[in-house]
UniProtKB/TrEMBL annotation, chain A:
One annotated GO molecular function: DNA binding
Domain HTH cro/C1-type: 6-60
Highest taxon listed in the record's lineage: Bacteria
SMART domains documented for this protein: HTH_XRE (SM00530)
Protein name from the UniProt record: Transcriptional regulator
Keyword line: DNA-binding
PANTHER family linked: TRACRIPTIONAL REGULATORY PROTEIN-RELATED-RELATED (PTHR46558), TRANSCRIPTIONAL REGULATOR (PTHR46558:SF7)
UniProtKB/TrEMBL annotation, chain B:
Source organism superkingdom: Bacteria
Source organism: Ornithinibacillus halotolerans
Keywords on record: Membrane, Transmembrane, Transmembrane helix
Keyword Membrane: yes
Lineage: Bacteria, Bacillati, Bacillota, Bacilli, Bacillales
Protein name, entry field: Uncharacterized protein
Transmembrane annotation, as ranges: 12-32, 38-59, 92-113, 133-155
């Protein structure tokens, strides 16, 4: 499961979901679902989001092993 | 199966389904024109309805699919501002006109070329046959626009409100 810190970075940059969505070329609800962990982004989308905040992908997305 | 294979197969299935869907339409129309009996196209009609219903069921979690789209493919504006509402009403109107034109064309084709019976259009004894047909079809056309507009407005505004509520929930 992928955990994200997108919301944390958005708040740090005073950016709303709509603005981030426009910057990375997705719909606003996709950002919302990403933040809630409902959806795993493609590598390109993860890269684009990380680029917006000028950080590496690993700082925004963390892969957590699911408990079996 | 690795993700590249899954993508290629999904694309292949999508194209095949699209071709099948076009084939169903062609088959249904051909059977109706040939036999003039809609019952002969029952199976095709069932699948024509079932296929998009099935796709819609699986895609129901994509909120943006419930928003009406303009001819360019872009979603209509979903904000609650005056300009956005005006833009949506304009979309509903032109959409209704499009539907009404499609219904009018189908009515003309069915009445004059397939069934070849237009007695049901002769409602005004004071007018000659031609004016009767023009007047009745004209009235049907205008009524169609009004009815389709009303249905579009109620249904799509409900969808827009639902969409905005979902966005608010995702923002929290």
């Amino acid at each position: 499961m992928l955990k994200t810190r997108i919301k944390e970075y958005r708040l740090k940059y005073d950016m709303n979901q709509q603005t981030l969505a426009e910057l990375v070329g997705v719909r606003r609800e996709t950002i919302g679902h990403l933040e809630r962990g409902n959806y795993n982004p493609s590598l390109k989308l993860a890269w684009d989001i990380a680029k917006v905040f000028n950080v590496s992908i690993e700082e925004i997305f963390e892969y957590v092993e699911e408990e079996k | 199966m690795d993700e590249r294979s899954q993508q290629m197969i999904a694309r292949g299935i999508g194209i095949t389904l699209a071709l099948l869907y076009v084939g169903l339409f062609v088959s249904a129309i051909w059977k109706y024109v040939d036999t003039k009996d809609i019952a002969n196209s029952t199976l095709e009609i069932i699948f024509i309805v079932l296929i998009p219903a099935s796709i819609a069921w699986f895609a129901r979690k994509d909120e943006s699919l419930s928003i009406p789209k303009m001819v360019s493919g872009e979603n209509v504006p979903t904000e609650l501002t005056k300009e956005a509402r005006k833009s949506r009403k304009k979309y509903y109107f032109w959409d209704s006109v499009g539907f009404a034109i499609a219904v009018l064309i189908l009515t003309i084709l069915s009445t004059f070329f397939i069934e070849k019976d237009w007695q049901h259009l002769l409602l005004f004894p004071n007018l000659n046959e031609t004016w009767n047909i023009i007047y009745v079809l004209g009235m049907e056309f205008i009524m169609s626009i009004i009815v389709f507009f009303a249905i579009s407005f109620v249904w799509e505004e409900w969808n827009v409100r639902k969409y905005n509520k979902k966005l608010e929930d995702l923002e929290e």
